[in-house]
Amino acid sequence: MFGLWRTFSSVLFYLTLAVGLGGLLGNGLVLWHLGFHIRKGPFSVYVLHLAAADFLFLGCQVGFSVVQAALGSRDSLYFAVTFVGFSVGLWLLAAFSAERCLSHIFPTCYQRHRPRHTSGIVCGLIWALTLPAVLLPAHACGLLRTSASPLTCLRYHAASVTWLLSLVCVAGVAGLVLFVWVGCCSQRPRPRFFGIALGSVLLLLFCGLPLVFYWSLRPFLNFLLPVFLPLATLLACVHGSAKPLIHFMAGRQPGKRQPLWAVLQRSLGEEAQLEAGGLALPMGLL
């Protein structure tokens, strides 16, 4: 039985490492092309920061996995640090899904009343607020190589779990509303970004949610289901690595070979700015 468990753990470890390396490559390409080859639209800013958050999470996960394999021990500090990148991505996905939903349901009102730099400000606030939202509970609960304070840990952890589950609900509800609106209520053609928004929410629910559950119930799951963390980590790496593939599938045209920046630009939808002319179609067409 012990040998079977070691084999299973090794398989999960190498699968996680392979998925993480592939995700680093995919998100690195997205960062390169969105950062240097495509002019920023309101939603490409979210995609750029999402790729950065996933790159951070996957990079920390791969790096700590290699260190763990070399040292032969698991440190709770690794999980706390990698969870920062995952949490930033979760918050960004919730904001991205909510804005996508509003822009399609109320296009005229959204275009008229949305401040110009909303995406950049929201992304900056998310990065700034996620660090204390994750590291304060981790510090109070002894995950950062510090002594745990039970009462403080309970208070911070309850607030952190409530915050994370709220973000999952926002992303899930926004995706559901968009799905119902496009499928049943809207008379306009299905937008190209519809597949990206729906695919991202489904990835979150099936691949990202287990890691949220582990953060919420870590002591119990460590005791009752030791295999839960490796499985949740693998699924979280799939969650972070599959988004560039979703963008590629949404933006590609069968039978045509195009540069990656053009595929990404098309996948972002009508608001993506044209590289050659520097123009953007009106957001009211979303």
TrEMBL record:
The chain crosses the membrane at residues 12-34, 46-71, 77-98, 119-140, 160-181, 193-217, 223-242. One of its GO terms (cellular component) is plasma membrane. InterPro entries: GPCR_Rhodpsn (IPR000276), GPCR_Rhodpsn_7TM (IPR017452), MRGPCRFAMILY (IPR026234). It is a multi-pass membrane protein. It holds the Pfam family 7tm_1. The keyword Repeat does not apply. Keywords: Cell membrane, G-protein coupled receptor, Membrane, Receptor, Transducer, Transmembrane, Transmembrane helix. GO terms for molecular function: G protein-coupled receptor activity. Residues 26-247 form the G-protein coupled receptors family 1 profile domain. It is found in: Cell membrane. The keyword Manganese does not apply. PANTHER family: MAS-RELATED G-PROTEIN COUPLED RECEPTOR (PTHR11334), MAS-RELATED G-PROTEIN COUPLED RECEPTOR MEMBER G (PTHR11334:SF32). Belongs to the G-protein coupled receptor 1 family. Mas subfamily. This is Mas-related G-protein coupled receptor member G. It comes from Ursus maritimus.
